[in-house]
Structures
1.
Amino acid sequence: MLECLVDGEITDQVSVADRGLLYGDGLFENITVLGGQPRFWQGHIDRLTAGCEQLGIPVTPQAVLLRELKTVAAGQPDCVVRIIVTRGTSGSGYAPSSPAHSNRIVSSHARTQLKEDYPTFGIRARLCDLRLGIQPALAGMKHLNRLEQVTARAEWQDPLIQEGILLDREDHVISGISSNIFLVYSGRLLTPRLDRCGIRGVMRGAILNAFRPLCEQRRLLLDMLPEAHEIFVCDSIHGVLPVTRIDHWEYEIGPVTREVQDWLNQQ
Amino acid sequence: MLECLVDGEITDQVSVADRGLLYGDGLFENITVLGGQPRFWQGHIDRLTAGCEQLGIPVTPQAVLLRELKTVAAGQPDCVVRIIVTRGTSGSGYAPSSPAHSNRIVSSHARTQLKEDYPTFGIRARLCDLRLGIQPALAGMKHLNRLEQVTARAEWQDPLIQEGILLDREDHVISGISSNIFLVYSGRLLTPRLDRCGIRGVMRGAILNAFRPLCEQRRLLLDMLPEAHEIFVCDSIHGVLPVTRIDHWEYEIGPVTREVQDWLNQQ
C-alpha cells in the first residue's frame, strides 16, 4: 500500500467494529489510474452507487471520492486505487444501524506488473471445482463477501495457470475468479447473465456498451465452452486477455478478441 | 466495546489490508462469559479450529485465545467476548499468501439485555424473503461473509418481531438469522442439516449432544413448520427461546422446549 485515507484522514487502520470486517458489509472498487487519471471512472462510480443503494448504505458524493483518489494517487501517476465503502461501525448484531452510516477507505497500490505477453499470447485457465452459490439478492455487486473467490483461487498453485473459470451449481458458466468472461461464437460476443451470481465488471460493462450490436447476455452452459471459437476474460486492472486453454480445451486467439483489445487500446 | 486485543496488543484498530476486511476471509465466535468463565468454550474452540483448518488459516493455540479472552473480560465478569481470526494482511488478489498467516482480534462487549420474558413467554418470528444460497464449500462455518444475514435482518423493523426464519432456495428451513432452530414433532427434536448452508451453532451442538436419543438432523421443508408441535431457536448468547408465532402460525410452548431450557439452566 502506498497511501491511504480512512474517511478523509491519513491512516491505514480501521476500527475492529467496522461492519466491513465483522460481516463483509460493504463494497469495493479497484480502479486503474494512468497519468493521474482514473480509467472508467464513471463505470466504477455507477456500480458503487448502485451497490450502496441496493444495500442501503449512504452514497458518498463522487466528488469526494474523486478528490481522495487523486490525493492517494499523487506522485504515482500509474497505480491502482482501491475504494472500500462499508456500513460503518455498529453495536452487536446484524441489524443495520439507523440512521445509516458509511465509512470509506481509499488507498493506492502499485500496479502488479502483468507479464507483457499475456495480452498478446493469451493466458491458460482451469475450471474451478468450487461452484458459485446462487443468490439473486447479492448478485452483480462487488461486495466484500468474497470467500467463494478466495476458496476457488486456493485450488491451484501452478504459476502457468493464470485464471480459474467459475460455474454455478447448475453448470452455467459465470465468470473468472477476478474477471468476467466472453465467448465468441460465429462473430457474436456472448457473456453470462449475472442476475443470480457473479460480479458485473466495469470492463465487461464497457465492452457491452462499445460492442452492443454484437453482444448478448445469456445463460451459458458448460457444454458451450469447448464449442467457443474464441474466449477472453477482462477486468479493469488487466484489460482484455485472450484465453488459449481451459484445462484440455484449446482456443485460437481470433479477430473478435483482437478487435476488442484494439478498442480498449484506443480508450 | 470494552477492551480489545489485536494479535495480543491493546488496540481497537486493524490494518485496512486485513483480508478479513477485504474479502471477509476469516471466522468469528461470540462467547458468553459468566463469572469470568467462558460458556461452552470447547464447542467454540472446536468450531473455530475446524473452520480454520477448512479455510487453510493457521490455528491459534487455544491457550493463547483463552488467555486473551480472560484479559479482555477482566473486571466485567458477565460479558460477551468476540474472537475474530482472519487470514492476515496480503498483497493484492484473492490468492491466499504463502506461507499462511493469521490475525486474531479478541474483544469484550456488554451483554445486550434480553427482555427477561423471552425465555419464559417466547418470541415472535417471521419468514424472511431472502433465501440462503446453497454453498456446501462454506456451509456450517461461522465465517465473516454475512451479507445474507445483514440483508435478511434489514427486511423488518417491527420491534415485536425478534427473529427471522431463513429458508434456502429449495424451501428447506435452515435457521434463524442469528440462531439455530429446532422443531418438536411427537416429542422428537428435529433440526436442519447444515451441510449446504447455515451455521453450525455451538448451542445447537450442545443440545444435539445432550438430547442425542431424541434428536434428528434432517432436511426440513417449509411445509413442516405449521405442523410442528413446538419450535424453539437457540444461540450461545441468548440461550433457548421458545417461538410462539411465525407470521400467522402460532405455537404453544411445550414440555420439550421447557426440558431443554431446564437442561441449559443446569449447565
2.
Amino acid sequence: MKKELFSRENHKEDTIIKIGNEEIIGNNKIMMIAGPCSVESEEQIIEIAKRVKESGANFLRGGAFKPRTSPYDFQGLKEEGLKLLTKAKEETGLKIVSEIVSIEDIELFDKYVDVIQIGARNMQNFDLLKKVSKLNKPIILKRGLCATIKEWLMAAEYILNEGNPNVILCERGIRTYETATRNTLDLSSIPVIKKLSHLPIIVDPSHAGGQKYLIEPLSKAAIAIGCDGLIIEVHNHPEKALSDGEQSLTPTMYNDLCQNIKPLINIMNKKI
Amino acid sequence: MKKELFSRENHKEDTIIKIGNEEIIGNNKIMMIAGPCSVESEEQIIEIAKRVKESGANFLRGGAFKPRTSPYDFQGLKEEGLKLLTKAKEETGLKIVSEIVSIEDIELFDKYVDVIQIGARNMQNFDLLKKVSKLNKPIILKRGLCATIKEWLMAAEYILNEGNPNVILCERGIRTYETATRNTLDLSSIPVIKKLSHLPIIVDPSHAGGQKYLIEPLSKAAIAIGCDGLIIEVHNHPEKALSDGEQSLTPTMYNDLCQNIKPLINIMNKKI
Amino acid sequence: MKKELFSRENHKEDTIIKIGNEEIIGNNKIMMIAGPCSVESEEQIIEIAKRVKESGANFLRGGAFKPRTSPYDFQGLKEEGLKLLTKAKEETGLKIVSEIVSIEDIELFDKYVDVIQIGARNMQNFDLLKKVSKLNKPIILKRGLCATIKEWLMAAEYILNEGNPNVILCERGIRTYETATRNTLDLSSIPVIKKLSHLPIIVDPSHAGGQKYLIEPLSKAAIAIGCDGLIIEVHNHPEKALSDGEQSLTPTMYNDLCQNIKPLINIMNKKI
Amino acid sequence: MKKELFSRENHKEDTIIKIGNEEIIGNNKIMMIAGPCSVESEEQIIEIAKRVKESGANFLRGGAFKPRTSPYDFQGLKEEGLKLLTKAKEETGLKIVSEIVSIEDIELFDKYVDVIQIGARNMQNFDLLKKVSKLNKPIILKRGLCATIKEWLMAAEYILNEGNPNVILCERGIRTYETATRNTLDLSSIPVIKKLSHLPIIVDPSHAGGQKYLIEPLSKAAIAIGCDGLIIEVHNHPEKALSDGEQSLTPTMYNDLCQNIKPLINIMNKKI
C-alpha cells in the first residue's frame, strides 16, 4: 500500500522548515509566534510587534481576514491589514503569519505573508489547501475543532501531495462537553503526531484555553510534551480588542511567559 | 439588538421555498431527495434516478465534486458528473441536488444544478457561503460535524444576509464518542430549529447512521419529530459503490422505506 | 466464545417482562411511566398519580432517594417518599417505579417498589447492579451519560448473569458539546439495541431534552423509531418543583402528549 | 450564598495532606504512585513494589477489587489482594493505594489500605463517597469519564461535607471522539482546579493515554502544568498482565521516566 507522505515510515528524520536559508522550525528550533487576533491599526500592530520581539518572539501573527461565527462581527481589515503587518515587519524584522480564508486572496498572501495559516474551520477545505500549497510557503495547518488526528494528517497530505513539504501542524484544542475551558487542548496529539509523522507541530494555548490565566501553564505543558512552537495571542489593550480580548495576554504577561518557559526549553534541549 | 434574519421572531411563518412556481419545501411539503453518494456513470445515475422516482423521490442527489478525507480517494467525475446528472434529469424530470466545494465551480453549478448543497466540512467556509448565495438558488446547508445549533444558524445567516432567503438546513449527525453509529443523529435539533427559526430542515439518515439497517428507523423518527424532508443515499450496486456503499440502500430498500413512512407523513399532515 | 446473555444471537425473540401474570413490556406492549422527579408530599404525588392515570400512564415514577450533583440540593424524602408512592398506588392502581442509590436500601425497595430504576450515574456501579438483581424485580437500567452502547449492554449483563432476566434499558441522552439541549438523545441506540439484543428499551425524553417543549416531539420520534415505552416527568406545579421543574410537563400537557402519540403507537402496531 | 468547602475562596492555602506526621502531598510535595492495574500474585506485587521503590515511588498501587466493563473479566483477588499489598508494604515500606467499589468492603479498606481510591465509574456514587469519608483516610477521587470540572468538585464536596478534608483529585482523561488515545487527558483541568480549589490534584497518564509510549510525555506535561503527583501503571510482565497490559510500563521504563522528569520537578520547585 502507498504510504502517505506525512508518514514517519517514509521519512524517518523530523522535517526542518526553512525560509531562505534560515531554519524556522524543526531540528530543535522552537517557533515563537505572537500577536493580536486581529490587526486593528498601525499603532496597535507596531507596538505589539516591538514588544513581543523584545520578549523573544520570532514571528508576528495578526488576522487580516477573519472567519467569524456571525456575519455581523468584525471581519478584519483585509488587504489593509496585510499592509500594516508588512509595516510592522519592516519596523521589527519579525516574519509574518496570517490566516487565509479564500482562494481569491492567494496573490495578496504571496506578496505580504511569510507563513500562511489555515484555520480550524478550513482544515478540510481541500480546495483552499490545494491552491495555497502552490505558493510553496510554509503553511500552518490548524486542527479542525473535531478532527481526528488521522483526518488532520490526511488534510496535511493534501498539501504535501501538491508538492509543498512545508507543513506545520497546530494543535488548538478540540470540542468536548467541558465548558470550563473554551476547548480542550489535546496535548496527547503531540506525541501521537511525533510517532506517526515527521512534520513539526506547534500549540495554540490561547484558543484552546480561552482565558488569560491558562496560557502560561498550557504553554509549559506544551513545551514539556515536545511541541516545536507556540502561537500566542498578545494585545496591547486586551480589554479593547475587537476580537478574543479575554484570551489575549498583555505584552508584559507575554514577556513573563517567555522568561518562565526558557528553563523548560533548555531541559528539552531546544532553542528559540 | 439586531435580530438575525433566520430568527422566527422576525418571520413568524415557516419559510416556503419554490423553484419557479413550484413549492419544493415548507407548507407541509416533504422534500424527498435520493441518489448515490457519487455519480459514477451514465448507466448508474439514470437507473438509480428512474428507480427512486418510481418510489416517490422528487429530487436526485449525486456527488460530482467529492470532498474526501484522503487525497487518494475518488474525488468525483467533476463537470462530467454534473452533465450526467442533467441527463438523468432529462430522462426523469427529477430536479438535481449536488454539492459544491469551490467558488471556481459556481458557474457550473449555476448551469447544471437546481439545489446546491454545502457539505458539513464547509459549513463555516464563509467565502463559499457568500459567493454561492449570489446564485439565488435554494441551498442545503449541512450541519458541521461538531457545530452547535447556534453556529449552524449563524452560518445560514451568512447566506440570508447576502439576500438569498432559500436556505434548507440539513441535520446529518454530530460527532460523539459513540462508535456503534458513524455519527450521532441529533434529532432534537429539529424541534430546536423549529422554535428558533422559520427555515425548513431536512435529515440525512445515511451519513448519520452509516449502516443500511439504520436508515429506515431513523427516517421514521425524523418524520415523526417534524422534519421537512429526507436525503437518502441509494445505489443500484451498493457493494460496488466508489464511496459510502455500506450506508447506501438498494432501490428496492428505498421503495420499501417510502412505503413505510407514508402513514407517518399522513399523521403529521404532510405530503411528498 | 461465550455469547452474552443480552445477545439476540442467544435469544431470538424479544424479551417480554411480566409482573405476576401481567405483561408490562415487550410483545408490542408500550410501558408508559409518568410522575414527578421527586416525591414531595402526599397531596402532590396523589394528584399527579390520578391525573397521569387518566391520561393513560400505567406506571407512576417518583424519586425518593435522589442522587444530586451537589450535597446541598434536596436529596429526597427517602423511606417516607416510598410510603407516599405506596399510598398513590393504593389510590390509583398504578405500579411504582423508583430509583435506588444504595445497597442498604434494598429491603425497602423490595417492600415498596414494583420496578427498580438504576440511574445513569450508577450504570457501572456493579456492586449495586449485582445486589439489586437478587430481588428478581424488573430493573430499568439507564444509559450512563457517556456510556457506549456496548458498555451499557455489558452493564445489563451484570444483572442477567445474576439470574435476573427482567432488564429494561432506558435511553436518556448522552453528553455531547451541544448546549441547546440538556443532553443529546441518541435515538439511534434503539435500532442498534434491537439488532444486538432481545431486551426491551424505553426512552426518557425529559432528561434528554431538559425543556418542556422538546418532550412531545422527542416522544413521537422515540415511538416511531421503535421504543417500548416512555418515562416522562410530570408535575402538578412545575414552577415549584424541588427538582427538574423546567423539564416537567403539567398533567394537561401530559394528557395532550398521550393523545398525540396514540396514532403513532397504532401505526407501529403497538398498544399501551 | 454558602461557599463550597472545596473553594479556594474559603481556604486560600493549598491543602497539605498528611499520614501521621508525614506530608504526602501538597506544599510542593509530589506523590509518586506506581504499581500494577491488578494485584495478581505475591511474587508479582513484591517484585514490582521493590522496583518502583528503587526508582523513587513513594506509594504502591494495586487493584484488588476491579470494576470491569464485562462481568466475565477478571474481577480482582479481593481480600487476598489486599493482604498481598500489605506484604509488599512490609517488604518495602511503600504505602498502599487501592480502589474501593462497595460499601461492604469498608472495614477491609480501613484495615489494609493507606489511601483509598474512588474510580471514575463511581465518581458520583454518592453513597460510597459518603461512607468512605468516615474512615478519615486520604481519598483519591478520580474524575468521571465525562464529568465536568464542576461536577467533579461537587463530588469532592460530598466527601469534604462529611468532615474528611483529605481529598486528592485525579485527572485521568475524559471521553471524546478521538480514538488515537484511550481517552483525552484534559491537562487544562489542573490550572482550572488550582484556581477554583485548594485541593491537590494528581494525573493518571496510563489510563488517559492507554499506550506505553504516551506515558512519559504525558507525565512531563503533567508536571510542567503543575500537578501534585502521578499515578502510573507498572507491571513486571506487561504482556502477561491480567488487565491493562498495553498501558503498563516495565519497571525499567518507569525508572527512566522517574529520571527524566526529575529536572522538571526541580524547575517547578517541587520534590518527590
